[in-house]
Design brief:
Elements: E1 2-5, E2 11-14, E3 23-26, H1 45-62, H2 65-77, H3 82-102, H4 108-128, E4 138-139, E5 145-149, H5 157-168, E6 173-175, H6 182-192, E7 196-200, H7 207-217, E8 227-231, H8 233-236, E9 247-248
Parallel strand pairs: 1-3, 5-6, 5-7, 7-8, 8-9
Antiparallel strand pairs: 1-2, 4-6
Length: about 270
């Protein structure tokens, strides 16, 4: 389930069953103590977001970027943050398309076309926010969070979206475009001193590579060793139950609970 706040239109995260991508509403931790300041919650928001979700899915299947532009404009008119559309609608659609491909519902060409569509939507949103993420190591110079794919996971769009979302949450974050060799990764960690290393694992077969990274991180001094947090499709669907030295996180919104991450204030309530 995809949870959105009915008061501030902000994406709150996911809840089991993670394979169900239905939009539902609730109240976020920022709005809850201020609920008396708001007008009555708009419970029609869930239906509106479902409509945006379905329209973007249809546009992606057709690679209709003009339709995507219209959809994003309608979302902006409702004061829905475009970064929340990325993390709360586009990213889950990527998981859905991957699952459709795995089950044979989509052919490889259709999966590639939809992924290319999502990448173009991301690029347009990121550029509009002046936060485009080119190839290579991108983002903050002194990141709290360093993001990368598991070795063998070549799809970078999910971590590009997550990097942009973390930045919108006032988290100093950067990503590595391609998984480096272990010694290169340790040298980078020693230099930039991130508090967290976030790894996205798409398939269970990539677990061994992540375990190797975890073992190498364990050799670093405590003062510079980051917490290793692993998420992605394989974790979300329960393909992996445990990785020694790592924390598995199916719902990326739980990153807000990791001090010193700070919750960003909600956008202005629409009138």
């Amino acid at each position: 389930m995809l949870r959105w706040c009915s008061y501030c239109q902000r994406f709150m995260g996911e809840s089991p069953d993670y394979q169900t991508l239905c939009v539902t509403h609730g109240i976020c931790d920022v709005c809850e103590p201020r609920v008396m300041e708001f007008p009555e919650a708009d419970f029609k928001l869930a239906a509106t977001l479902r409509d945006i979700q379905h329209r973007l899915h249809d546009a992606g299947r057709r690679y209709d970027l003009a339709a995507a532009e219209r959809i994003m404009k309608s979302a902006a008119a409702l004061h829905i943050n475009p970064v929340d559309v990325l993390i709360g609608i586009i990213a889950p659609l990527l998981y859905q398309i991957g699952e459709d491909w795995r089950r044979g519902v989509l052919c490889v060409a259709d999966e590639h076309r939809f992924t290319a569509f999502c990448e173009e939507v991301f690029d347009r949103i990121a550029k509009s926010l002046k936060s485009a993420t080119p190839a290579g190591i991108v983002g903050a110079h002194d990141p709290q969070a360093l993001l990368m794919n598991a070795p063998g996971n070549e799809h970078t769009l999910a971590i590009r979206i997550l990097t942009l979302w973390l930045q919108s949450q006032r988290v100093s974050a950067c990503m590595i475009d391609a998984a480096p060799a272990q010694e290169q990764l340790c040298a980078l960690i020693t230099r930039v001193r991130p508090k967290w290393l976030l790894i996205s694992m798409a398939l269970a077969e990539q677990c061994e590579g992540v375990m190797a990274i975890s073992r190498r991180l364990a050799t670093l001094p405590d003062s510079i060793r980051p917490r290793l947090i692993v998420g992605g499709y394989a974790v979300k669907l329960g393909m992996v139950s445990a990785i020694p030295g790592a924390e598995l996180m199916a719902d990326i919104s739980l990153l807000r609970d990791l001090s010193p991450f700070e919750s960003a204030p909600p956008p202005a309530r629409r009138s």
